[in-house]
Write a structure and sequence with these properties.
Blueprint: H1 3-16, E1 20-24, E2 29-34, E3 45-50, H2 75-88, E4 92-95, E5 100-103, E6 119-120, E7 125-131, E8 134-139, E9 144-149, E10 155-157, E11 162-167
Antiparallel strand pairs: 1-2, 2-3, 4-11, 5-7, 5-10, 6-9, 7-8, 9-11
């Protein structure tokens, strides 16, 4: 993670009103804590980065169990998968701008904001993400047609997690 990405993340956290975020990857761990301002103003933020040292003693490895070999797929199925993969390259991915809980509708008795096949334009609300008891409407930044919904309703999402695939044509 570069220093610019860390600075952008700190700005995003301060803007979103989140008090603490912890991200842990293989080679680093970052914790960003932000004090909530008592009056209007910019939240103060501090960040700590920890890079773990290699562990000298290794844990004994679990025994490896051979998985059953699957029967080879038919050529038609492989061609369909290849075609679908190449089509997905043409799609735009709408990603989550924050950490929270993903909702497809504004309330349980309402219709979903979008369905597969529905056309959307810039500024249309595509979902709601709840973060710290605040419901944030997520607006589309692209024009197109919803091809696939990648997240289940009422499930947690991470920052920058793909939510929708949109066909811009």
């Amino acid at each position: 993670m570069t220093i610019n990405e860390i600075q952008d993340l700190i700005k995003f956290i301060a803007k979103a009103g989140v008090t603490e975020v912890e991200i842990e990857k293989k080679d680093f761990k970052i914790t960003i804590k932000s004090e909530m301002p008592k009056k209007k103003g910019i939240a103060g933020a501090e960040a700590t980065i920890q890079v773990p040292m290699p562990v000298a003693a290794a844990m004994p490895a679990a025994p490896v169990v051979a998985a059953p070999v699957a029967a080879p797929e038919a050529p038609a199925a492989q061609a369909t998968e290849t075609k679908a993969a190449s089509n997905e390259d043409n799609y735009i991915t709408v990603k989550s701008p924050m950490i929270g809980t993903f909702y497809r509708r504004s309330s349980p008795d309402k219709d979903p904001f979008v369905e597969v096949g529905k056309s959307i334009s810039t500024g249309d609300v595509v979902c709601v993400i709840e973060a710290m008891k605040l419901f944030n409407e997520i607006e589309s930044e692209v024009n197109g047609k919803i091809v696939k919904i990648l997240v289940d309703d009422n499930s947690p999402v991470e920052y920058d997690q793909p939510l929708f695939l949109v066909d811009p044509s």
